[in-house]
Protein backbone atom coordinates (compact mmCIF):
# COMPACT_ATOMS: atom_id res chain seq x y z
CA UNK A 1 0.00 0.00 0.00
CA UNK A 2 2.76 2.43 0.89
CA UNK A 3 4.55 1.92 -2.44
CA UNK A 4 1.33 2.48 -4.34
CA UNK A 5 0.63 5.60 -2.33
CA UNK A 6 4.05 6.95 -3.16
CA UNK A 7 3.57 6.24 -6.85
CA UNK A 8 0.18 7.95 -6.85
CA UNK A 9 1.66 10.88 -5.01
CA UNK A 10 4.48 11.13 -7.53
CA UNK A 11 2.04 11.04 -10.44
CA UNK A 12 -0.13 13.71 -8.89
CA UNK A 13 2.94 15.83 -8.25
CA UNK A 14 3.81 15.70 -11.94
CA UNK A 15 0.30 16.13 -13.28
CA UNK A 16 -1.45 18.47 -10.83
CA UNK A 17 -1.78 21.79 -12.72
CA UNK A 18 -3.26 24.07 -10.08
CA UNK A 19 -1.37 25.79 -7.32
CA UNK A 20 -2.90 25.53 -3.86
CA UNK A 21 -2.21 26.87 -0.42
CA UNK A 22 0.73 25.36 1.35
CA UNK A 23 0.19 22.19 3.37
CA UNK A 24 0.94 21.80 7.02
CA UNK A 25 4.73 21.30 7.27
CA UNK A 26 4.13 19.44 10.54
CA UNK A 27 2.09 16.73 8.77
CA UNK A 28 3.69 13.47 9.99
CA UNK A 29 3.30 11.91 6.56
CA UNK A 30 5.85 14.36 5.14
CA UNK A 31 8.40 13.47 7.77
CA UNK A 32 7.85 9.78 7.13
CA UNK A 33 7.96 9.93 3.36
CA UNK A 34 11.10 10.96 1.42
CA UNK A 35 9.12 11.56 -1.76
CA UNK A 36 6.75 13.94 0.00
CA UNK A 37 9.77 15.69 1.51
CA UNK A 38 11.18 16.15 -1.97
CA UNK A 39 7.86 17.54 -3.19
CA UNK A 40 7.74 19.86 -0.18
CA UNK A 41 11.14 21.22 -1.17
CA UNK A 42 10.65 21.51 -4.92
CA UNK A 43 6.91 22.11 -5.35
CA UNK A 44 5.48 23.12 -1.99
CA UNK A 45 2.40 24.67 -3.56
CA UNK A 46 1.29 21.23 -4.79
CA UNK A 47 1.69 19.50 -1.47
CA UNK A 48 -1.79 20.22 -0.04
CA UNK A 49 -3.42 18.80 -3.15
CA UNK A 50 -1.29 15.65 -2.91
CA UNK A 51 -2.05 15.22 0.76
CA UNK A 52 -5.76 15.69 0.07
CA UNK A 53 -5.58 13.00 -2.61
CA UNK A 54 -3.81 10.68 -0.19
CA UNK A 55 -6.56 11.33 2.36
CA UNK A 56 -9.16 10.36 -0.20
CA UNK A 57 -7.31 7.20 -1.08
CA UNK A 58 -7.18 6.08 2.52
CA UNK A 59 -10.87 6.85 3.16
CA UNK A 60 -13.15 3.76 2.94
CA UNK A 61 -15.95 5.80 1.34
CA UNK A 62 -13.65 6.38 -1.63
CA UNK A 63 -12.80 2.74 -2.09
CA UNK A 64 -13.45 2.62 -5.87
CA UNK A 65 -10.96 5.44 -6.48
CA UNK A 66 -8.44 3.71 -4.28
CA UNK A 67 -8.92 0.44 -6.13
CA UNK A 68 -8.46 2.19 -9.47
CA UNK A 69 -5.19 3.60 -8.27
CA UNK A 70 -4.08 0.21 -7.02
CA UNK A 71 -4.31 -1.33 -10.50
CA UNK A 72 -3.03 -4.89 -10.45
CA UNK A 73 -3.62 -5.23 -6.74
CA UNK A 74 -7.32 -4.66 -7.36
CA UNK A 75 -7.36 -7.31 -10.07
CA UNK A 76 -6.33 -9.92 -7.53
CA UNK A 77 -9.50 -9.47 -5.49
CA UNK A 78 -12.44 -11.68 -6.54
CA UNK A 79 -15.26 -9.47 -7.79
CA UNK A 80 -18.82 -10.30 -8.76
CA UNK A 81 -19.90 -9.03 -12.18
CA UNK A 82 -22.09 -5.92 -12.01
CA UNK A 83 -25.73 -6.95 -11.69
CA UNK A 84 -26.82 -4.82 -14.63
CA UNK A 85 -24.53 -6.69 -17.06
CA UNK A 86 -26.25 -10.03 -16.39
CA UNK A 87 -29.02 -10.93 -18.78
CA UNK A 88 -32.00 -12.86 -17.45
CA UNK A 89 -31.86 -16.59 -18.05
CA UNK A 90 -34.58 -18.44 -19.90
CA UNK A 91 -35.27 -21.16 -17.34
CA UNK A 92 -34.40 -22.44 -13.87
CA UNK A 93 -32.35 -25.20 -15.53
CA UNK A 94 -30.26 -22.71 -17.42
CA UNK A 95 -29.95 -20.60 -14.30
CA UNK A 96 -28.60 -23.55 -12.35
CA UNK A 97 -26.17 -24.36 -15.12
CA UNK A 98 -25.03 -20.76 -15.21
CA UNK A 99 -24.43 -20.82 -11.49
CA UNK A 100 -22.30 -23.93 -11.90
CA UNK A 101 -20.16 -22.35 -14.59
CA UNK A 102 -19.87 -19.04 -12.76
CA UNK A 103 -18.48 -20.85 -9.76
CA UNK A 104 -15.32 -20.98 -11.87
CA UNK A 105 -12.69 -18.22 -11.50
CA UNK A 106 -14.09 -14.70 -11.84
CA UNK A 107 -12.84 -12.29 -14.49
CA UNK A 108 -10.58 -10.71 -11.89
CA UNK A 109 -9.11 -14.09 -10.98
CA UNK A 110 -8.57 -14.92 -14.65
CA UNK A 111 -6.84 -11.56 -15.07
CA UNK A 112 -4.52 -12.53 -12.25
CA UNK A 113 -3.75 -15.84 -13.91
CA UNK A 114 -3.08 -14.13 -17.23
CA UNK A 115 -0.86 -11.56 -15.56
CA UNK A 116 1.59 -14.36 -14.85
CA UNK A 117 3.28 -15.21 -18.17
CA UNK A 118 4.18 -18.73 -17.09
CA UNK A 119 0.60 -19.61 -16.18
CA UNK A 120 -0.98 -17.89 -19.17
CA UNK A 121 1.40 -19.78 -21.46
CA UNK A 122 0.06 -23.05 -20.10
CA UNK A 123 -3.51 -21.90 -20.73
CA UNK A 124 -2.54 -20.96 -24.28
CA UNK A 125 -0.75 -24.22 -24.94
CA UNK A 126 -3.31 -26.38 -23.26
CA UNK A 127 -6.70 -24.69 -23.03
CA UNK A 128 -9.77 -26.63 -21.97
CA UNK A 129 -11.95 -26.46 -25.09
CA UNK A 130 -14.87 -28.13 -23.29
CA UNK A 131 -14.87 -25.35 -20.68
CA UNK A 132 -14.94 -22.73 -23.45
CA UNK A 133 -17.74 -24.62 -25.16
CA UNK A 134 -19.83 -24.75 -21.97
CA UNK A 135 -19.35 -21.03 -21.44
CA UNK A 136 -20.54 -20.30 -24.98
CA UNK A 137 -23.56 -22.53 -24.36
CA UNK A 138 -24.38 -20.58 -21.20
CA UNK A 139 -24.25 -17.35 -23.17
CA UNK A 140 -26.50 -18.81 -25.85
CA UNK A 141 -28.97 -20.05 -23.20
CA UNK A 142 -29.33 -16.50 -21.94
CA UNK A 143 -30.57 -15.25 -25.32
CA UNK A 144 -34.29 -14.58 -25.14
CA UNK A 145 -36.51 -15.65 -28.05
CA UNK A 146 -37.74 -12.77 -30.20
CA UNK A 147 -40.98 -11.30 -28.87
CA UNK A 148 -44.14 -12.65 -30.46
CA UNK A 149 -42.83 -16.21 -30.71
CA UNK B 1 -6.29 -18.37 -3.88
CA UNK B 2 -4.39 -20.56 -6.32
CA UNK B 3 -1.87 -21.78 -3.79
CA UNK B 4 1.15 -19.88 -5.07
CA UNK B 5 2.60 -16.42 -4.83
CA UNK B 6 1.35 -13.19 -6.32
CA UNK B 7 1.69 -12.51 -10.06
CA UNK B 8 5.05 -11.10 -10.99
CA UNK B 9 6.82 -12.94 -8.22
CA UNK B 10 9.11 -14.91 -10.47
CA UNK B 11 11.84 -15.76 -8.07
CA UNK B 12 15.13 -14.41 -6.89
CA UNK B 13 16.94 -11.31 -8.03
CA UNK B 14 19.83 -13.10 -9.72
CA UNK B 15 17.99 -13.41 -13.04
CA UNK B 16 17.19 -17.10 -12.73
CA UNK B 17 13.59 -18.25 -12.84
CA UNK B 18 12.97 -20.04 -9.60
CA UNK B 19 10.25 -22.60 -9.16
CA UNK B 20 7.72 -21.36 -6.66
CA UNK B 21 6.44 -23.38 -3.81
CA UNK B 22 2.97 -24.86 -4.24
CA UNK B 23 1.45 -24.96 -0.81
CA UNK B 24 -0.53 -28.00 0.26
CA UNK B 25 -1.57 -29.20 3.66
CA UNK B 26 -0.26 -32.79 3.70
CA UNK B 27 -2.13 -33.42 6.94
CA UNK B 28 -5.27 -33.47 4.74
CA UNK B 29 -3.81 -35.98 2.27
CA UNK B 30 -5.83 -38.91 3.65
CA UNK B 31 -9.11 -37.06 3.08
CA UNK B 32 -7.99 -36.00 -0.36
CA UNK B 33 -7.04 -39.53 -1.36
CA UNK B 34 -10.54 -40.57 -0.26
CA UNK B 35 -11.95 -37.80 -2.45
CA UNK B 36 -9.78 -38.93 -5.37
CA UNK B 37 -11.06 -42.49 -5.04
CA UNK B 38 -14.66 -41.29 -4.78
CA UNK B 39 -14.30 -39.18 -7.91
CA UNK B 40 -12.78 -42.08 -9.84
CA UNK B 41 -15.51 -44.40 -8.60
CA UNK B 42 -18.16 -41.90 -9.70
CA UNK B 43 -16.60 -41.94 -13.14
CA UNK B 44 -16.83 -45.73 -13.15
CA UNK B 45 -20.45 -45.57 -12.04
CA UNK B 46 -21.57 -43.33 -14.91
CA UNK B 47 -20.04 -45.75 -17.39
CA UNK B 48 -21.60 -48.71 -15.56
CA UNK B 49 -25.00 -46.97 -15.61
CA UNK B 50 -24.67 -46.40 -19.34
CA UNK B 51 -23.61 -50.02 -19.89
CA UNK B 52 -26.70 -51.15 -17.99
CA UNK B 53 -28.96 -48.81 -19.96
CA UNK B 54 -27.43 -49.77 -23.31
CA UNK B 55 -29.45 -51.95 -25.64
CA UNK B 56 -26.18 -53.62 -26.61
CA UNK B 57 -23.93 -53.64 -23.54
CA UNK B 58 -21.09 -55.41 -25.37
CA UNK B 59 -21.00 -52.74 -28.07
CA UNK B 60 -20.83 -50.11 -25.34
CA UNK B 61 -18.01 -51.97 -23.58
CA UNK B 62 -16.03 -52.07 -26.84
CA UNK B 63 -16.58 -48.36 -27.33
CA UNK B 64 -15.48 -47.51 -23.80
CA UNK B 65 -12.37 -49.64 -24.17
CA UNK B 66 -11.35 -47.62 -27.24
CA UNK B 67 -12.74 -44.14 -26.45
CA UNK B 68 -13.44 -43.90 -22.73
CA UNK B 69 -12.72 -40.17 -22.28
CA UNK B 70 -14.40 -39.22 -25.55
CA UNK B 71 -17.60 -41.07 -24.58
CA UNK B 72 -17.81 -38.98 -21.43
CA UNK B 73 -17.16 -35.77 -23.38
CA UNK B 74 -19.98 -36.57 -25.81
CA UNK B 75 -22.27 -37.40 -22.87
CA UNK B 76 -21.27 -34.09 -21.28
CA UNK B 77 -22.09 -32.25 -24.52
CA UNK B 78 -25.55 -33.84 -24.79
CA UNK B 79 -26.23 -33.17 -21.10
CA UNK B 80 -25.27 -29.50 -21.51
CA UNK B 81 -27.45 -29.15 -24.62
CA UNK B 82 -30.46 -30.39 -22.63
CA UNK B 83 -29.67 -28.71 -19.30
CA UNK B 84 -29.19 -25.32 -20.92
CA UNK B 85 -32.08 -25.82 -23.36
CA UNK B 86 -29.91 -25.04 -26.35
CA UNK B 87 -32.40 -26.80 -28.63
CA UNK B 88 -34.76 -23.79 -28.32
CA UNK B 89 -34.56 -22.01 -31.70
CA UNK B 90 -33.22 -18.69 -30.37
CA UNK B 91 -30.62 -20.38 -28.18
CA UNK B 92 -29.50 -22.70 -30.97
CA UNK B 93 -29.10 -19.80 -33.39
CA UNK B 94 -27.13 -17.87 -30.76
CA UNK B 95 -24.95 -20.90 -30.05
CA UNK B 96 -24.16 -21.44 -33.73
CA UNK B 97 -23.40 -17.73 -34.20
CA UNK B 98 -21.19 -17.71 -31.10
CA UNK B 99 -19.41 -20.86 -32.29
CA UNK B 100 -18.68 -19.29 -35.68
CA UNK B 101 -17.46 -16.05 -34.08
CA UNK B 102 -15.19 -18.00 -31.75
CA UNK B 103 -13.67 -19.99 -34.62
CA UNK B 104 -13.24 -16.81 -36.70
CA UNK B 105 -11.29 -15.25 -33.86
CA UNK B 106 -8.94 -18.22 -33.67
CA UNK B 107 -8.61 -18.54 -37.45
CA UNK B 108 -7.84 -14.82 -37.84
CA UNK B 109 -5.66 -14.79 -34.74
CA UNK B 110 -3.32 -17.58 -33.73
CA UNK B 111 -4.02 -19.65 -36.88
CA UNK B 112 -3.77 -16.83 -39.43
CA UNK B 113 -1.76 -17.98 -42.47
CA UNK B 114 -1.42 -21.45 -41.00
CA UNK B 115 -2.52 -24.64 -42.68
CA UNK B 116 -2.95 -28.26 -41.72
CA UNK B 117 -3.98 -29.88 -38.45
CA UNK B 118 -6.18 -27.84 -36.16
CA UNK B 119 -6.02 -24.78 -38.45
CA UNK B 120 -7.80 -26.70 -41.24
CA UNK B 121 -10.20 -28.33 -38.81
CA UNK B 122 -11.22 -24.95 -37.40
CA UNK B 123 -11.91 -23.63 -40.91
CA UNK B 124 -14.07 -26.64 -41.62
CA UNK B 125 -15.73 -26.40 -38.20
CA UNK B 126 -17.78 -23.32 -39.04
CA UNK B 127 -21.49 -23.65 -39.74
CA UNK B 128 -22.73 -22.48 -43.13
CA UNK B 129 -25.46 -19.93 -43.63
CA UNK B 130 -28.19 -22.56 -44.00
CA UNK B 131 -27.30 -24.67 -40.97
CA UNK B 132 -29.97 -23.32 -38.62
CA UNK B 133 -32.60 -23.50 -41.36
CA UNK B 134 -31.74 -27.16 -41.96
CA UNK B 135 -31.99 -27.97 -38.26
CA UNK B 136 -35.34 -26.17 -38.00
CA UNK B 137 -36.68 -27.94 -41.10
CA UNK B 138 -35.72 -31.28 -39.59
CA UNK B 139 -37.34 -30.31 -36.30
CA UNK B 140 -40.58 -29.42 -38.13
CA UNK B 141 -40.46 -32.64 -40.11
CA UNK B 142 -39.43 -35.07 -37.36
CA UNK B 143 -40.92 -33.33 -34.33
CA UNK B 144 -37.63 -33.45 -32.43
CA UNK B 145 -34.22 -31.83 -32.48
CA UNK B 146 -31.77 -33.75 -34.61
CA UNK B 147 -28.22 -32.77 -35.40
CA UNK B 148 -26.19 -34.30 -38.16
CA UNK B 149 -23.02 -36.15 -37.25
CA UNK B 150 -21.17 -33.31 -39.00
CA UNK B 151 -23.00 -30.66 -36.93
CA UNK B 152 -21.94 -32.35 -33.69
CA UNK B 153 -18.37 -32.72 -34.97
CA UNK B 154 -18.38 -28.98 -35.78
CA UNK B 155 -19.46 -28.06 -32.26
CA UNK B 156 -16.78 -30.37 -30.81
CA UNK B 157 -14.09 -29.43 -33.33
CA UNK B 158 -11.66 -28.26 -30.65
CA UNK B 159 -12.43 -31.18 -28.35
CA UNK B 160 -11.86 -34.14 -30.68
CA UNK B 161 -11.16 -34.91 -34.32
CA UNK B 162 -14.02 -35.43 -36.79
CA UNK B 163 -13.06 -39.07 -37.09
CA UNK B 164 -13.10 -39.67 -33.34
CA UNK B 165 -16.42 -37.87 -33.03
CA UNK B 166 -17.90 -40.00 -35.81
CA UNK B 167 -16.60 -43.20 -34.16
CA UNK B 168 -18.01 -42.28 -30.74
CA UNK B 169 -21.41 -41.27 -32.15
CA UNK B 170 -21.54 -44.46 -34.21
CA UNK B 171 -20.52 -46.53 -31.18
CA UNK B 172 -23.16 -44.91 -28.97
CA UNK B 173 -25.74 -45.52 -31.68
CA UNK B 174 -24.65 -49.16 -31.97
CA UNK B 175 -25.05 -49.50 -28.22
CA UNK B 176 -28.52 -47.96 -28.47
CA UNK B 177 -27.68 -44.89 -26.39
CA UNK B 178 -28.17 -42.53 -29.33
CA UNK B 179 -30.46 -42.91 -32.32
CA UNK B 180 -29.47 -42.30 -35.91
CA UNK B 181 -31.06 -42.27 -39.33
CA UNK B 182 -29.76 -41.54 -42.79
CA UNK B 183 -31.18 -38.38 -44.39
CA UNK B 184 -32.52 -39.49 -47.79
CA UNK B 185 -31.64 -36.31 -49.67
CA UNK B 186 -28.05 -35.54 -48.72
CA UNK B 187 -27.26 -38.90 -47.06
CA UNK B 188 -26.25 -37.12 -43.84
CA UNK B 189 -26.32 -39.22 -40.67
CA UNK B 190 -28.80 -37.53 -38.35
CA UNK B 191 -28.37 -38.12 -34.61
CA UNK B 192 -30.79 -37.64 -31.73
CA UNK B 193 -31.01 -38.73 -28.14
CA UNK B 194 -33.91 -40.17 -26.23
CA UNK B 195 -32.43 -38.89 -22.98
CA UNK B 196 -30.53 -41.81 -21.44
CA UNK B 197 -27.08 -40.34 -22.12
CA UNK B 198 -28.03 -36.95 -20.66
CA UNK B 199 -29.73 -38.44 -17.59
CA UNK B 200 -26.77 -40.71 -16.83
CA UNK B 201 -24.38 -37.77 -17.04
CA UNK B 202 -26.73 -35.69 -14.88
CA UNK B 203 -26.74 -38.47 -12.27
CA UNK B 204 -22.95 -38.44 -12.44
CA UNK B 205 -22.89 -34.71 -11.66
CA UNK B 206 -25.33 -35.25 -8.79
CA UNK B 207 -22.98 -37.95 -7.50
CA UNK B 208 -20.08 -35.51 -7.65
CA UNK B 209 -22.10 -32.90 -5.79
CA UNK B 210 -22.87 -35.42 -3.05
CA UNK B 211 -19.22 -36.47 -2.83
CA UNK B 212 -18.02 -32.89 -2.52
CA UNK B 213 -20.73 -32.07 0.04
CA UNK B 214 -19.76 -35.12 2.11
CA UNK B 215 -16.13 -34.03 2.05
CA UNK B 216 -16.85 -30.44 3.09
Give a structural overview.
The complex is a heterodimer of chains A (149) and B (216). Chain A has 149 residues and is mainly α. Chain A has helices at 2-15, 28-32, 34-42, 47-58, 63-70, 72-75, 92-102, 107-115, 117-125, 129-141. Chain A has two domains: 2-70, no CATH class; 75-141, no CATH class. Helix content of chain A is 63%, strand content 0%. The longest helix of chain A is centred in the N-terminal third of the chain and has 14 residues, at 2-15. Residues 11-22 and 61-89 of chain A have low confidence and may be disordered. Chain B is mostly helical and 216 residues long. Chain B has helices at 29-53, 57-83, 89-108, 117-124, 131-142, 149-155, 162-174, 196-215; strands at 147-148, 179-182, 189-192. In chain B, helix 2 packs across helix 8 (196-215) and helix 6 (149-155) packs across helix 7 (162-174). Chain B is globular, with a radius of gyration of 22 Å. Residues 1-13 of chain B have low confidence and may be disordered. Chain A binds chain B through residues 72, 76, 78, 90-91, 93-94, 96-97, 109, 112-113, 115-116, 118, 129-130, 132-134, 136-141, 143-146, 149, and chain B through 1-2, 6-8, 10, 17, 73, 76-77, 80-81, 83-86, 88-95, 98-99, 102, 155-156, 158-159.
Helix content bin of chain A: 55-70%
The ordered string of helix (H) and strand (E) elements of chain B is HHHHHEHHEEH
Biggest β-sheet of chain B: count, sense, barrel?
Answer: 3 strands, antiparallel
Strand content range of chain B: under 5%
- What is the general shape of chain A? elongated
Give the terminus-to-terminus CA distance of chain A.
55 Å
Please tell me the total number of domains of chain A.
Answer: 2
What's the end-to-end separation of chain B, in Å?
17 Å
Poorly predicted regions of chain A are 11-22, 61-89
Order of helices and strands of chain A: HHHHHHHHHH
Shape of chain B: globular
What is the chains' assembly state? heterodimer
C-alpha Rg of chain B (nearest Å): 22 Å
Rg of chain A from C-alpha positions? 23 Å
Biggest contact: A-B, 31 and 31 residues
Amino acid sequence: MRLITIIVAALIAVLAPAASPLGDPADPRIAANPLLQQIARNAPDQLPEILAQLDELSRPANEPAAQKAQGAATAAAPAAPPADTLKPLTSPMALNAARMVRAQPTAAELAEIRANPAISAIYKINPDPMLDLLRRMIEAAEVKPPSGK
Amino acid sequence: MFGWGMPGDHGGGDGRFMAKEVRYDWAQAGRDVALLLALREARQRVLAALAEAAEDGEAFARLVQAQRDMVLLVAEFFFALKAMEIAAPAALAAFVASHNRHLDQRIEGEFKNKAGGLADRLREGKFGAGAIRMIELTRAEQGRIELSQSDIARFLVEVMSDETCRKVLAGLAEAGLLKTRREPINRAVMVWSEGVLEAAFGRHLADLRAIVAAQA
